[in-house]
Design goal:
Helices cover 27% and strands 24% of the residues. It is of the alpha/beta class. Bound molecules: S-adenosylmethionine. S-adenosylmethionine binds next to helix 1 and strand 2.
């Protein structure tokens, strides 16, 4: 449910942004190289003049980098706190961005066939209805437009990051709930929706996309700009064996 996700992000945004201190740049997530620079993935091409929609933008560090490269960027996020941070960061970086607060399962206010690129990093894990989100992404793309999405690799999630022992089955998908106790003793409900690789791929295909590439970044390398390296579960110990991030590049 988006309500639970919204509550989590309103509560966690300040702590998350301070802890991860994400640099301005087009990132793909923990254990992955950025779009540019050494090891750069170069999935997006020249963005100058392109219309880009970033869904689940968080602090909009990616969207801001795209705007600085000359793209016309629109971003959507459900969390007021995340958007507050993103707006301030965009102002500081003199990046012109169109902001929307909303749910990325449906975004009817974005016109059909209006975008060259839909981009998302590490937001889809919170979305219960992936099909609706993918159908919407397909709708707003121009013909030939690209959908580039980065999300957790479910293989990584079933292994304990410290002991390297299996925590559960790769086939256990659907709603995952936990209660996290923070340093101040407060308790917060965390909800996510782990998915197998084939489930994501088949949902993309079902929405009409052609999958052009699937990338499992080599997380044995320590990418210097990776702000999540050795935080939470993203230990070098586990990243040596499995990548935390998977990326799909698809085309309408
Ligand atoms: C882990 S953060 C990632 C943010 C950003 N893409 C990044 O890579 O830094 C996940 C973001 O997705 C947003 N989000 C989660 N579910 C959403 C939904 N259903 N609709 C809109 N935004 C959502 C959260 O509010 C949060 O800002």
């Amino acid at each position: 449910m988006s309500k639970e996700t919204k509550q989590w992000w309103e509560a966690t945004s300040k702590y998350y942004q301070e802890e991860s201190n994400i640099p301005i740049g087009i990132h793909y997530g923990p254990g992955a190289p950025f779009e540019d620079g050494k090891h750069g993935l170069h999935l997006l091409g020249n963005l100058r003049g392109k219309k880009v929609l970033e869904i689940g933008c968080g602090g909009a560090q990616c969207g801001i980098a795209m705007a600085k490269q000359g793209a016309q960027v629109t971003v959507i996020d459900i969390s007021e706190e995340q958007l507050k941070f993103a707006r301030a960061l965009a102002d500081k970086n003199r990046a012109k961005i169109e902001f929307h607060q909303g749910d990325i399962r449906k975004f009817p206010y974005i016109p059909s066939r209006s975008q060259d690129l839909v981009f998302t990093a590490w937001a889809l894990l919170y979305v219960d209805d992936l099909e609706s989100c993918f159908n919407e992404s397909y709708r707003v793309l121009k013909k030939g437009g690209r959908f580039v999405l980065a999300m957790p690799h479910h293989f990584f999630e079933v292994i304990d990051s410290k002991t390297l022992k299996l925590k559960g089955s790769y086939f256990k998908t659907g709603k995952y709930e936990s209660v996290e106790t923070w340093q101040d003793g407060s308790k917060h409900k965390f909800v996510s929706y782990p998915r197998t690789v084939s489930e994501v791929a088949n949902t993309l295909i079902g929405s009409g996309f052609n999958i052009e590439r699937i990338i499992e970044p080599d997380s044995r390398i320590h990418y210097k700009r990776d702000p999540w390296y050795n935080t939470w579960d993203f230990t070098p110990k586990l990243m040596k064996y499995v990548t935390p991030t998977i990326i799909f590049k698809a085309r309408k």
